[in-house]
TrEMBL record:
Residues in the signal sequence: 1-16
Assigned keywords, A-Z: Signal
Name of the protein in its database record: Lipoprotein
Native organism: Pristionchus fissidentatus
Amino acid sequence: MTSLLFLLSLPLIAIGCDIKATLNFNPKIQSGFARFKFFNETYGPVYEYREGEKNLPQKFTIKGTFCNMKPTILETFETDPRAGDVKPKKTSQAFIEGFGTMDYQIGDMHTPYLSSKIGVFCGFGDCGNSHG
Ligand SMILES: *[C@@H]1O[C@H](CO)[C@@H](O)[C@H](O)[C@H]1NC(C)=O
């Protein structure tokens, strides 16, 4: 039991992350914008997605040390956040750590969620459990 608890707590102290992440878009989607706010408090690029169009998956890497000190947040917007003073429509946030791959999805009603993960420890947030 003690060793099991030790194993379970290991990901929490893993030093760093190197995650190949993909942002996917539902086939049916309302036009909008998505942006990541990373654990290091910087923003990723703004991705625009359009209703009735084929929105190609976006690939990027999440890399750093102490990745789970702060949450990584996927935000969606109805208007371009680069216009300034735009509040997110929906957010999905989680504390992540580890080495592997992660898939995020933008669903109906601008709902972002984590759709799958391999080798990534995710805690204290939207870790994809409620979406199968
Ligand atoms: C913050 O983290 C993201 C994702 O790993 C990375 O792309 C970006 O370059 C980092 N920014 C800084 C200032 O370290």
